[in-house]
Write a structure and sequence with these properties.
about 350 residues, D-amino Acid Aminotransferase, Chain A, domain 1, OB fold (Dihydrolipoamide Acetyltransferase, E2P), 2 domains, five-stranded mixed β-sheet, 7 helices, 19 strands, about 20% helix, about 30% strand
Amino acid sequence: MSLPLNKNFEPMEAQPASELPIGSQWQYEPKWDGFRCLAFRDHKQVDLMSKASKPLTRYFPELSEALAQIRAKQFVLDGEIVIPLDGGLSFDSLLMRIHPAASRIRKLSEQTPALFIVFDLLVDDRGHALNQEPLETRRKRLEEFAKKYLSSITKARLSPVTQDIAVARKWFHMGVALDGVVAKRRDLPYQSGERTGMQKIKRQRSADCVVGGFRYLEKKALVGSLLLGLYNAEGKLDHVGFTSSISSDERPALTKKLERLIKPPGFTGKAPGGLSRWSSKRSMEWQPLDSRLVVEVQFDHFTGGRFRHGTKFLRWRPDKAPKDCTIQQVKRENRSALDLL
C-alpha cells in the first residue's frame, strides 16, 4: 500500500538575467508564455496548483481529465499550462479561463483546449520523491516518464532541453513563439521556493508610441503616468497601455509641458477604461492630449491589443512623426513554439 502523496512543494523560481550563462553545468529550456503549474496525481485525485499555491484544477478540466488517464497512480510534475491558438500561444485565452461559471469554463475548454508542457519530475511513478536529486538525474527520469506515459495523451508534452548554447540562442530569437529562455544548473537539486540555480532571460522589445493622455499622481498635481497610443489599421489612435517610469526630478517640468497640450479627445479609437473595484476615481481620471508627443518604451508582451504590463520609458522621440506610430510595430513573426515539441 503506497503512502499519501507529499504535496508540500513550492515551484522553483528563476532569477532574472540579461544574458545566457555559459558552462557545462547549465542546460537551457524554452520559457513558455503561460501559467506555471504543479500537477499532483494521487490515485484518483488530480490537483493542479499555481505558482502562488492557488488551485487551478477547476479552470482546466481537460488537463485534469487527461492526467487522470495516465496509468501511473502517483506523480508530481512541474510545467506550464499554455493555450495554442492561431499558430502561437494565447495568454488572453488563459486569463479567460479564470471564470466563476463552470459552464463557461467547460465551453472554453472545448473551444480552446489547453496543453500542459512538462519540464520537471518531482515525484516519480512509484511515489518516490526526486526533489533532492540533481536536475541531470531528474531530467533523465522525466524523459523515461514521458516516453512511458505522455505519448498516450495529447494534452501533455515534454518540453525540449539543450546544452548547446547555439540552440538556446536560436530559441531566444524565435520572436512571438517564446517568452525567452530559461537556464538551469544541472548539478543542483530542486530549489523549492528559491531563486538559485535557475535564470530566466527574456527578450526586451521597444516601440514608439503617441502620448494620447496622462494621469496625475494619486495625491499630487504632478504627472504620474503617460497613456500610450498606437494607430490601428483604420487610422484611429487606440490606447494600448501606459508608462510610469518617470523620474521625480522630471515630473514638475513634464507636468507643465503636458498641461499646455491638453486637448480632447486624446484617443480616437479605444480609450482608457473607467472605474473598477480596484481603482479610485482620481486614479482613473485622465487628461487627453493633442497627438504631438512620441515616446519610445520598452515592453515584454503585447497581447489583446495592449501591453500586458506597464512599460519602461526609454526616451522621447521628437524625430518621429506621430502618424508613423502604428500597430505594425508590435506585430511579429507568427512561428509556432509548438514546433519545438
